[in-house]
C-alpha cells in the first residue's frame, strides 16, 4: 500500500529537521562532537523513519528512494540530510575516527550532487562549493561509477558558467576542466576493464 503524505506533514517534518540541523550545527561549532553525533543519529531517524545504524547500511539508491514524495524528490530533506552527514564526518574526524568520516562524506556528496544536478531552482554557488569541497575531501578514496558520473556531469555543467560564478564557488575553469579530464579517463579505464572481463 502506498503511503500518501499531506503537505502539512511534509512541512512539519522539514521544520523539525531544520531545528535538528540548527541544534547539531551549534554543538559542532562548540566542539561538542560526541553530542553532535548523537543528535545527528536522532535527526536521521526523524528524517527517514529508521534507526541511524540501519540508515547507514542502506545504499545510495535506497536513501534517495526514501526521499521521494509522490514520485518527486524532496530536495529540502535531501539538503538537510547531506548537511547532517557532512557534520557527522567532521565530528568523527575531530574525535579521532577518520575512517568513519569517509562513508559519511561520500553520502553527503551523493545527496548534494542529487540536489545540484536536478533541482530546478536558481543556481547556488554555496551548494556548488559544497560539492567541490566534498570531492576534494574524498580525493584518494574509491568512489562508485555512479558518483563519478555525477561528478562528471557536475563539472561539465560548471564549465558552462561564467568565471564570476565559478570563482565564487571556490574553483577555476582550469580546475573544472582538469576534473572533467581525470573523471573521463577514469571512466574510460573502467569501461575498458568491463569489456576485457566480459
Explain this structure:
Strands 1-2 form a two-stranded antiparallel sheet. Helix 1 runs parallel beside helix 5 and helix 6 runs antiparallel to helix 7. The model is unreliable at 1-5 (pLDDT under 50). Strand 1 and strand 2 (72-73) form a beta hairpin. It has 198 residues and is mostly helical. The chain has helices spanning 7-29, 33-48, 52-55, 60-66, 75-94, 98-118, 125-137, 145-158, 163-168, 173-197, and strands at residues 68-69, 72-73. The protein is globular, with a radius of gyration of 18 Å. It starts with 6 loop residues before the first helix and ends with a helix.
Characteristic key phrases:
single chain; 198 residues; disordered N terminus; two-stranded antiparallel ribbon; 2% strand; mainly alpha; 10 helices
Largest β-sheet summary: 2 strands, antiparallel
Q: What is the CA-atom radius of gyration, in angstroms?
A: 18 Å
Helical content class? over 70%
- How large is the share of residues in beta strands? under 5%
The tally of helices reads: 10
**Ends: how far apart?**
40 Å
Weakly predicted, low-confidence segments: 1-5
pLDDT average, as an integer? Answer: 87
Amino acid at each position: 500500500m502506498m503511503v500518501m503524505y499531506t503537505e502539512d506533514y511534509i512541512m512539519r517534518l522539514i521544520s523539525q529537521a531544520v531545528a535538528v540541523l540548527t541544534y547539531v550545527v551549534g554543538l559542532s561549532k562548540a566542539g561538542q562532537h560526541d553530542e553532535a553525533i548523537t543528535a545527528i543519529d536522532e535527526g536521521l531517524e526523524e528524517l527517514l523513519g529508521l534507526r541511524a545504524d540501519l540508515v547507514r547500511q542502506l545504499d545510495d539508491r535506497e536513501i534517495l528512494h526514501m526521499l521521494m514524495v509522490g514520485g518527486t524528490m524532496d530536495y529540502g530533506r535531501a539538503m538537510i540530510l547531506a548537511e547532517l552527514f557532512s557534520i557527522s564526518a567532521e565530528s568523527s574526524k575531530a574525535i579521532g575516527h577518520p575512517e568513519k568520516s569517509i562513508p559519511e562524506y561520500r553520502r553527503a556528496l551523493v545527496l548534494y550532487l542529487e540536489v545540484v544536478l536536478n533541482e530546478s531552482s536558481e543556481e547556488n554557488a554555496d551548494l556548488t562549493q559544497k560539492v567541490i569541497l566534498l570531492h576534494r575531501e574524498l580525493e584518494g578514496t574509491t568512489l562508485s561509477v555512479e558518483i563519478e558520473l555525477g561528478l562528471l556531469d557536475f563539472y561539465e555543467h560548471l564549465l558552462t558558467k561564467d568565471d564570476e560564478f565559478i570563482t565564487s564557488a571556490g574553483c577555476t575553469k582550469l580546475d573544472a576542466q582538469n576534473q572533467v579530464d581525470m573523471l573521463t579517463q577514469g571512466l574510460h579505464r573502467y569501461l575498458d576493464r568491463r569489456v576485457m572481463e566480459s
